Amino acid sequence: PPNLQMVEEDLGLERVNCRAKGASSGFKVAILGAAGGIGQPLAMLMKMNPLVSLLHLYDVVNAPGVTADISHMDTSAVVRGFLGQQQLEDALIGMDLVIIPAGVPRKPGMTRDDLFNINAGIVKTICEAIAKCCPKAIVNIISNPVNSTVPIAAEVFKKAGVFDPKRVLGVTMLDVVRANTFVAEIMGLDPREVDVPVVGGHAGVTILPLLSQVKPSCSFTQKEIDYLTDRIQNGGTEVVEAKAGAGSATLSMMLASRALRGDAAVVHCAYVASEVTELPFFASKVRLGRNGVEEIYPLGPLNEYERAGLEKAKKELAGSIQKGVSFLRVTE
Ligand code: NAD
Ligand code: LMR
């Protein structure tokens, strides 16, 4: 196959490279795991985003193909591909935002925690490179189990002396997207007008929808609350089972990438280092800005059902956080 860089130079297209090098305004974004089910459509969305000036696509397989494909889109972001661990650092240098969907997805019958053994090491290695090459980047972690991979990232950054709690976010927006859709379905509303806060974490009972705080204000029967809570907590499993071994949710995840828009003053739910509860990490509504998390909002008033759910969520979350934190000690 032709060496793309040589062809560009032969054709006098070095201006593209200059543009890539000089892309001073706009976000420089790296997607790690860019050739995967999430990575590819996420790369497309980022290439369509006028706020993005430079897009680095890194994977251990198929990065050149995805890069060639995405780079033909007639939008302004310059796209560069990086293949294999020897190119990981090059993929990260100068990045403002690093999005990590690298790793393996669930198959039917698995929990997200069953992915820990493979994905924990992948996230650790990637975060060590981030700490070295772009320690000030905002890091969005999609790889599961998010409840543990975010604490792993934080530990790696702490060890390297570069941890900024405002800049490390676990992506849980998909739970909100699902909750909005399911509530809209049963209430006969337009999902775009519904906003359900979903707090806690991103697995099973740690996914805690606050149905008492839904906007517009809705009143649910206990049967509806039980149905909605169960469906929102098991939305990921619903997709994993329907895909029957061919992966987990990817396309609805793309809607969740609204959280990565980069607009000023966007309020979304994310799993972050937090003092909202006694746990060191918790998902709740946060205000995002150019520097990451600018404000973490309190949970607001909970009803008795939600308070019971919160206790269950915290119990499981505490174990997942501890597992992530001790992973570094175990591996060193
Ligand atoms: P996928 O298998 O389709 O893609 C994963 C990609 O990661 C592949 O291209 C693979 O080559 C790459 N990869 C593997 N090891 C790597 C490494 N060391 N460095 C860089 N890239 C590597 O899976 P997917 O459907 O895209 O899901 C990816 C992850 O996201 C899974 O862990 C899944 O559970 C998780 N997920 C999270 C959410 C969320 O809301 N947080 C939603 C959906 C999926
Ligand atoms: C989801 O919620 O869809 C993702 O976390 C993927 C999964 O394994 O459920």
Automatic annotation (TrEMBL):
<dbReference type="GO" id="GO:0006099">
    <property type="term" value="P:tricarboxylic acid cycle"/>
</dbReference>
<feature type="domain" description="Lactate/malate dehydrogenase C-terminal">
    <location>
        <begin position="172"/>
        <end position="327"/>
    </location>
</feature>
<keyword id="KW-0816">Tricarboxylic acid cycle</keyword>
<keyword id="KW-0809">Transit peptide</keyword>
<protein>
    <recommendedName>
        <fullName>malate dehydrogenase</fullName>
        <ecNumber>1.1.1.37</ecNumber>
    </recommendedName>
</protein>
<dbReference type="GO" id="GO:0005777">
    <property type="term" value="C:peroxisome"/>
</dbReference>
<keyword id="KW-0576">Peroxisome</keyword>
<dbReference type="GO" id="GO:0009507">
    <property type="term" value="C:chloroplast"/>
</dbReference>
<keyword id="KW-0560">Oxidoreductase</keyword>
<feature type="domain" description="Lactate/malate dehydrogenase N-terminal">
    <location>
        <begin position="28"/>
        <end position="170"/>
    </location>
</feature>
<comment type="subunit">
    <text>Homodimer.</text>
</comment>
<dbReference type="GO" id="GO:0030060">
    <property type="term" value="F:L-malate dehydrogenase (NAD+) activity"/>
</dbReference>
<dbReference type="GO" id="GO:0006097">
    <property type="term" value="P:glyoxylate cycle"/>
</dbReference>
<keyword id="KW-0520">NAD</keyword>
<comment type="similarity">
    <text>Belongs to the LDH/MDH superfamily. MDH type 1 family.</text>
</comment>
<dbReference type="GO" id="GO:0006108">
    <property type="term" value="P:malate metabolic process"/>
</dbReference>
<keyword id="KW-0329">Glyoxylate bypass</keyword>
